[in-house]
Amino acid sequence: MDQPDAILSRLLTLHPKKIDLSLGRTERLLDALGRPDLKLPPTIHVAGTNGKGSTIAFLRAMLEAGGKRVHVYTSPHLLRFNERIRLGAERGGKLVDDARLNAALERCEAANGGQPITFFEITTAAAFTLFAETPADWLLLETGLGGRYDATNVIANPRAAIVTSISLDHLEFLGDTVEKIAFEKAGVFKKGAPAIVGFQHEPVARVLEREARRAGASLFVAGQDFHLREENGRLVYEDERGLLDLPLPRLAGRHQHENAAGAIAALRLVAAETPTAAIEAGLTRADWPARLQRLLRGPIVDLAPPGAEVWLDGGHNEDGGRVLAEAMAEFHDKAPRPLALICGAQTTKDVRALLRHFVGLAREVVAVPVEGEHKSWPPEEVATLARAEGIPAAAASNPEEALKIIATRRFDAPPRILIAGSLYLAASVLAANGSLVE
Predict the structure, then answer these.
(1) How many other CB atoms sit within 10 Å of the CB of residue 190?
(2) Alpha-carbon gap, residue 177 to 168, rounded angstroms
(3) Which of 211, 321, 332, 374 is the most buried (most CB within 10 A)?
(4) What is the DSSP string of 25-69?
(5) What is the DSSP letter of 221?
(6) Is the pTM value of this prediction over 0.90?
(7) Whole-number Å distance between alpha carbons of 240 and 235
(8) Domains 3-285 and 293-433 agree in fold
């Protein structure tokens, strides 16, 4: 075990016996550290259920294309913790190295003095310490859980806050309706900072708009204050400043058009100097692993039938299932192939709701466990749920076996294979495939 892994394991033991969403523990530790949160670069705060990371990927790519140094904080990581902290001290930025990460974690561990604190809270404090010590032009900050009482929400004066698509997830912490969840996410809105509200269902939009007004934030709402459409193979964005005729995003799926629009809206409001050329370049350069990522080579791909496409996505809730199914249907319209779904999920997720979107679309579901997760749905139970929805299904012990099962099927063309249901599953597939996250 290397040094960062060792200290991260120690920090897990400080976790309170019961999670009470609160900013108190984070603020106590930041006080002990000399308030690095007050020394951060201009910050764009991003909350939501789905699309946070992709929106940040677009923002980062656009700002960096404009010559800016950009810090980035996201979670969870896929292969190693360092992925959560990107330091923008030089063009393009780099993931924090082990030595700097270890030093920051040790400093936070000492300042915390053994008091109860969640893993996310203390590692967020470590990230803030690193960001405060490293000059940059911008910080892109993703919430972990919720918004109102998320550890990142100690930021008092963000330049802007974005709330991406909201749906049911983390019900045990955020509430059992989309309206309750929206209320928690809206906690990132601050007085004087533009509140960019992404494309939402009407009940969610009403809550977000109400809370933005209550916070004194200026509203900028998708579908009202900014619009987008695909036209002749281009992405057309429009707001009060005018129209942009842009290339389609590199990230696959129509849902990424909406994430890109939120990023563009934020930059047009708080980084108006960003040239159109940088926005164009950012759209075509943005990269976000395990979000409709096509795997082109590696041991996992080699197990697929000859000529098959292998796609990977960490989507794990009902809305994630919806956008994935829509993307697969769009792919099929453009280039028809039979679809096989390899699915693994945690028992905290409504896997049947996710599967339901693939009825009439997937030829077969092959269920797998989520490696290392004691809350993983047993594969046979997932297969049973798929069959109950009318989708032929089988169970496998891991993704490799699932691919071998698919390879025995007689499809009328090389299949399109989608591996989805959990970010933890996506991480294990990337590791098995020898893929890197940089």
Answers:
(1) 21
(2) 7
(3) 321
(4) HHHHHHHHTT-GGGSPPSEEEEE-SSSHHHHHHHHHHHHHHTT--
(5) E
(6) yes
(7) 17
(8) no
Architecture in CATH for domain 3-285: 3-Layer(aba) Sandwich (3.40)
Question: Rg of the Cα trace of the chain?
Answer: 21
Q: Where are the alpha helices (DSSP H) in 362-422?
A: 379-388, 399-407
Q: Tell the residue number behind the tokens 């389609």, with chain if given.
A: 248
CA distance 138 to 221: 23
Q: Among residues 48, 4, 17, 5, which one has the least CA distance to residue 258?
A: 48
Q: How far apart are CA 249 and CA 256, in angstroms?
A: 7
For tokens 């550890």, the residue is 151
Residue linked to tokens 């599953």: 425
Torsion angles phi and psi, residue 345, rounded to 5: -150, 160
The secondary element (H helix, E strand) that includes residue 291 is none
In sequence order, what are the residues at sequence separation of 6 or more whose Cβ sits closer than 8 angstroms to the Cβ of residue 181? 49, 146, 166, 167, 168, 169, 170, 174, 175
The residue whose two tokens read 């400043």 is: 241
Beta-strand relationship, 362-367 and 293-295: unpaired
Mean pLDDT on 389-407: 97
Query: Per-residue pLDDT tens for 232-244?
Result: 999 999 999 999 9
At residue 57's C-alpha, the angle toward residues 56 and 60, to 5°, is 80
Identity of the residue numbered 8: L
* Token duo for residue 105: 């974690």
Looking up tokens 């997720």, which residue turns up? 349
**Which pLDDT band holds residue 168 (cuts at 50, 70, 90)?**
low
Would you list the domain boundaries of the chain?
3-285, 293-433
| Residue 271 CA from chain centroid, whole number | 23
Strand pairing class (309-312; 339-343): unpaired
pLDDT of residue 206: 92
293-433: which CATH architecture?
Answer: Alpha-Beta Complex (3.90)
